[in-house]
Design goal:
This protein has helices at about 10-30, 35-65, 70-95, 130-145, 155-170, 185-190, 205-215, 240-250, 270-285, 300-315, 370-375, 390-400, 435-440, 465-480; strands spanning about 100, 110-115, 120-125, 145-150, 175-180, 195-200, 220-225, 230, 260-265, 320-325, 340, 360-365, 385, 405-410, 430, 445-450. The protein is α/β, with parallel strands linked by helices and about 475 residues long. It binds nicotinamide-adenine-dinucleotide. Nicotinamide-adenine-dinucleotide binds next to helix 6 and helix 7.
Length: about 475
């Protein structure tokens, strides 16, 4: 973390608080932006992203000491542009008040839900996809008519600086503001009285953030992590499962919140799967060290954590296969080859923590029910992947498990669907963005009764001893008879 990326604040809360107040004031000046105003903001975001695309690719490459530009384009830039387009297409219809049913005594009134912007949304961004995970929630917040403040990750400082410049050159300071800095700034940021706070990061920090937000009763959307399993049915072709899983696990070198964390394969197919997986990884990444397609690990500390976790597993009896097709030397690089780990047990750190790197444990099972019980015996994951061409078995696995999202016969593709909510459940998160659900997350769903000239309710009121009230109550209890 370089010094210029740290906001030097004598009174951090006060300085950040003043920025928030500034944006809140601007919001109060225009609390109901029209669809055209929202689209204008989204267009500025779209254009800014296009103007800064190459700068982002470069900054991410520097932050990671090797980030595949194809991954940056495919998993950061293009999905945000898609999301912006999707929001622009739908926001007019989402903004329309929705008509609702009404009770008899509101005859003559109109009953509608209005969707009102909340105000200023705070967005805390992690390092693994620091463009997408900042700008995708921002696009949802803007579509719903909000203004925003973003806190970038201290572990992707160059990307944070580009983000700051891109936003500053397309938005006024009292519209959207980017704040860079370390944990001290993040801590103060999450104490601010936002109208909504989106936090993307680890489950442990999520707890701290929710506690801070509780002080202000700021509602939170927590996009957290966890161990997302991939279960393969014995009838599914192992080579095909291996290819699909390798695509997901290789992306960003496994540093993805919805990366398949571990695989569960039938006992007699574990070795076949491991072989096919190694083959698929080798064919995608025939070399690693200087291969720009294979992303490095974000920091020396993270790399060391991963190496230590493999050693921990090995010391407890695991069998580790390193997929290093060109037999390279990785000393003094942040690249880490894919590690396939067999004979794993629950006392190994790789089976206790989210892996978040190129390590794939494979657990053997005999019956699918066992695999389901294993998943259900642990924290509810952010994603669950099941490979099986039998739809009713797949449906059964889905109905018997919980996860934030899921794919059948694939991994990770659900995050790319704009027309679906994305989020976790339990320890993997709460709340959603993307899709109409994202618009609802960032809107106050305000129930409004609009009474007309006729006041049917006036016929019922004190003094209560009157015939109309008695017939009204008698009518109600004819409707609400005891259920046989
Ligand atoms: P992290 O929790 O360490 O940091 C995330 C952000 O929180 C950073 O901006 C950081 O500055 C800030 N932060 C750190 N300490 C804080 C504190 N005490 N108070 C307030 N803010 C604080 O996470 P990370 O290492 O950047 O990202 C990896 C984690 O994020 C993984 O667990 C991964 O699964 C998860 N993740 C989840 C999603 C999702 O969509 N659900 C997406 C990407 C990453």
């Amino acid at each position: 973390m370089s010094a210029e990326n740290v906001i030097e604040l004598d009174q951090p809360t006060k300085a950040l608080g003043a920025s928030l107040q500034n944006i809140k004031r601007a919001f109060s000046g225009n609390p109901a932006p029209t669809a055209a105003e929202r689209i204008d903001r989204l267009n500025r975001l779209h254009n800014g992203l296009l103007d800064y695309k190459d700068r982002f690719i470069e900054a991410l490459n520097e932050d990671f000491a090797g980030r595949s530009s194809a991954e940056t384009l495919m998993a950061e830039i293009v999905p945000i542009l898609e999301g912006i387009r999707y929001n622009k297409k739908h926001l007019r219809s989402w903004m329309k008040p929705s008509k609702r049913g009404k009770p008899p005594y509101l005859m003559g009134s109109s009953v509608k839900v209005h969707y009102q912007p909340l105000g200023v949304v705070g967005i805390v961004v992690p390092w693994n996809f620091p463009v997408f995970l900042g700008l995708s929630p921002l696009s949802g917040a803007l579509a719903a008519g909000n203004l925003a403040m973003l806190k970038t990750s201290e572990f992707a400082p160059r990307t944070g600086e580009v983000m700051k410049e891109m936003i500053a050159s397309n938005f006024a300071d009292d519209e959207i503001l980017v704040v860079t800095g370390g944990v001290d700034v993040a801590t103060e940021f999450t104490k601010l009285p936002f109208d909504h706070l989106v936090f993307t990061g680890s489950t442990n920090v999520g707890r701290i953030v929710m506690r801070a937000a509780a002080e202000n009763l700021t509602p939170v959307t927590l996009e957290l992590g966890g161990k997302s399993p991939a279960i393969i049915h014995e009838s599914y072709p192992m080579d095909e499962a291996a290819k699909r899983i390798a695509f997901g696990k290789g992306m960003n070198a496994g540093q993805v919140c919805i990366s398949p964390d571990y695989v569960m394969a039938p006992s007699d197919k574990v070795d076949v799967f491991a072989e096919e997986f190694a083959k698929a990884i080798s064919s995608s990444y025939p070399t690693l060290k200087d291969n720009p397609d294979y992303t490095a690990i974000i920091s020396d500390n993270q790399r060391q954590r991963l190496v230590d976790n493999v050693k921990d597993a090995e010391s407890k009896g695991a069998e580790v296969t390193v997929v290093d097709p060109a037999g390279e030397d990785f000393e003094n690089t942040r690249k880490l080859p894919m590690h396939i780990v067999r004979n794993v047990s629950d006392n190994m750190r790789i089976m206790q923590e989210e892996i978040f790197g190129p390590i794939l444990p494979i657990i053997a099972y005999d019956k699918v029910e066992e695999a389901v019980a294993y998943v259900n015996g642990r924290d509810r994951p952010l994603a669950l992947y099941y490979f099986d061409n039998n739809p009713s078995r797949a449906e059964k696995v889905l109905s018997q498990t919980h996860s934030g999202g899921a794919c059948i016969n694939d991994v990770m593709s659900h995050v790319a669907v704009d027309d679906m909510p994305f989020g976790g459940v339990g320890p993997s998160g709460m709340g959603h963005y993307h899709g109409k659900e994202g618009f609802l997350t960032f809107s106050n769903q305000r129930g409004v009764v609009h009474k007309g000239k006729l006041n049917a309710g006036a016929m019922i009121g004190p003094p209560w001893a009157n015939r109309i009230f008695e017939s009204f109550i008698a009518f109600q209890f004819r409707r609400f008879k005891k259920i046989e």
